[in-house]
Amino acid sequence: MLWPMIAVALGFLGIAVLGVLAIRVFVEVRRLARQVGAASERIQRAAQDLERAATPLASRVHEATRD
Q1: Is the Transmembrane helix keyword given for this protein (predicted)?
Q2: d(Cα 36, Cα 28) in Å, to the nearest integer?
């Protein structure tokens, strides 16, 4: 009767360890998702800044090629 009880206890401990690890993975995935979102916003702002900076240059090039 001792071995089945040990097996059940070890099984429960194994499931508890897997649960704790699953929670840690979930927390890290949420943190990573927030970082990816922030990086995406920074990239989008940089692309908008680049577009605003390139617009006058493009219009000058267009005027120069028209002449």
Answers
A1: yes
A2: 12
Which residue do the tokens 């900076």 mark? 53
Q: What radius of gyration do the chain's Cα atoms show?
A: 29
Length of the chain: 67
Q: Which amino acid is at 5?
A: M
Nearest Cα to 18, choosing from 28, 8, 10?
Answer: 10
**What does the angle CA 48 – CA 52 – CA 53 come to, to the nearest 5 degrees?**
115
Name which of 58, 43, 37, 15 is nearest 7 in CA terms. 15
- Residue 24 is which amino acid? R
